[in-house]
Amino acid sequence: MPEHDQQDFYDAMKLAAQGAADVLRGLSNSDRLLLMCQLSQGEASVAQLEAAVGIHQPTLSQQLGVMRRLKLVETRREGKQIFYRIEDKRILLLLTTLYDLYCPVQQDGE
């Protein structure tokens, strides 16, 4: 591999590593991880997230703000409601893997 191609490869790897580190930093908080797991099931409003995961204001707003800044979620507004969703399929794949590794399996009938 020519030297300039090798440098391009390492530059791309460095950029990818920074992106992965940013995502992992965003998921390193248990409240954010819980919210992301809920959003992996589909788009949800702030009220739906609060009811589903039991995280109340102002913690919920604070964590959703962090998630927006880290570009873990996207939002859309419908009237007065704000809806959150995970847009990046790589994050959904990561959350699925984490779920498979760490979340308890619910037995049939439970």
UniProtKB/TrEMBL annotation:
Coiled coil: none annotated. It comes from the Bacteria. One of its GO terms (molecular function) is DNA binding. Residues 12-106 form the HTH arsR-type domain. It comes from Mangrovibacter phragmitis. The keyword Membrane does not apply. InterPro entries: ArsR-like_HTH, HTH_ArsR_DNA-bd_dom, Metal_resp_trans_reg, WH-like_DNA-bd_sf, WH_DNA-bd_sf. Keywords: DNA-binding, Transcription, Transcription regulation. This is Transcriptional regulator. NCBIfam families: HTH_metalloreg.
